[in-house]
Amino acid sequence: MNEATFVIIIKLTKSKCEEPCEGRLSSTVPREGWVKIPPLTRRNRTASCRISILYRNAFLLMTINLRYIYNKVKMKKKTYLLMALMMVSMGMNAQNSEKSSLGNDVPEFVKNMTIGGTIRSKYEYQTEEGEGRFEVRTARINVAGNVTKEVSYKAEIDLCDEGKIKMLDAYTRIKPWKTLQFTIGQERVPFTIDAHRSPHQQYFANRSFIAKQVGNVRDVGAEIGYTWNVGFPIVVNAGVFNGSGLTNQKDYWTKGVNYSAKAQFLFPNVNLVLSTQKIKPSDVTVNMYDAGLTFHYGGFIAEVEYLYKHYSHNAFHDVHAFDGFACYDIPVRTRLIKKVSPLVRYDFMSDHSDGSRYNATDDDLGELIINDYKRHRVTGGVTLSLSKPFISDIRINYEKYFYREGGIAKPSEKDKIVVEFMTRF
């Protein structure tokens, strides 16, 4: 260990020389474009700096004499090596101890906690008005997990539900065994098929009329669920709820309760869903009945759903709503897109009231009004899946609306092109 050589190469132009590079620390492997460096001699005992220009190339050659340093540390190198090994060993032990201590101090329910969410951002262009907009439709964050094997929980908020912050789910679920569960808190009530789909599970950029207007209910209450297996699973959920909705809970007291029940018959390749619900938004009781059938085989899925809504005392005429769609998944082998899914939908609803009275006076309770006018809609498009289905999708849809004569279209429910990016994490 006499000296060490450090070579910094500053290449100006390529040399035609193909001789091997030689030197104290240089490789003898031929390297095209390098030049021959004269070997160092034993006389070179001091640090020197030399610039050589050979074959139109410039090199900076620095040689450092390490003999003096080597002589100083030769007697102590074993001590230094021992100290280094001790320090590495102590560091590894401390790291392992810290991990072990951290693992022991963290409660088990924290280890089982999961944090997730859904972001939906889209651009819409209304073809008749020639107007467009960008919108963040969904920005959901949720925390879920198990406190024990039998007790689980979920809390979810939407930071941008049409520009508003809303608490969506906040419940505790007790599952004493696999077939029975009890849930208490705020949740989507067990009713319909399409309304129960989370935003990342939707097939289209915009929900059906059943899911958005007619059968969309979240409430506070308690629910029980039971599963039978009679050659195929039968899942039944039923619950009672306040009827106060998501926000009006503090001073809400009632002598009655709303109820909802849902039964799912999960045959091979076919799911039959029947559900019913009773709500009372005002002095008017509203009863709803829903039936749906889903067929799935390979990459093909087709679904039809019908909802009937009745108002007590003939306060409003009965409402009918229908939703039907078909989708086919085509796997593709590209670096970015994993699946292409063309799809088409038809949905319909008659004139609809939310059951609340409007225009009330001191002498009059008010009346139920038309909140959504009768209309048909045809939707076609394609979904591009960038990952597994319902994880990262690009939904491209065109919606065509047909309103009855005299029907008034809401600002966001007109003919339009929709491009939506959905990300689930």
Describe the model.
Helices cover 11% and strands 50% of the residues. It is mainly beta and 425 residues long. The strands form three sheets. Strands 4-5-6-7-8-9-10-11-12-13-14-15-17-20-21-22 form a 16-stranded antiparallel β-barrel. The protein has a three-stranded antiparallel β-sheet with strand order 1-3-2. A two-stranded antiparallel sheet has the order 18-19.
Mean pLDDT: 81
Radius of gyration, Cα only, in angstroms? 36 Å
**Strand sequence of the main sheet, in spatial order?**
4-5-6-7-8-9-10-11-12-13-14-15-17-20-21-22
Largest sheet composition: 16 strands, antiparallel, barrel
Please give the alpha-carbon distance between the first and last residues.
57 Å
Topology, element by element:
Elements: E1 3-10, E2 48-54, E3 57-65, H1 67-73, H2 77-105, H3 108-111, E4 114-126, E5 131-146, E6 151-161, E7 164-177, E8 180-188, H4 209-214, E9 218-229, E10 233-241, E11 258-267, E12 270-279, E13 286-297, E14 300-311, E15 319-328, E16 330-331, E17 339-349, E18 357-358, E19 367-368, E20 375-385, E21 392-403, E22 416-424
Antiparallel strand pairs: 1-3, 2-3, 4-5, 4-22, 5-6, 6-7, 7-8, 8-9, 9-10, 10-11, 11-12, 12-13, 13-14, 14-15, 15-17, 16-17, 17-20, 18-19, 20-21, 21-22
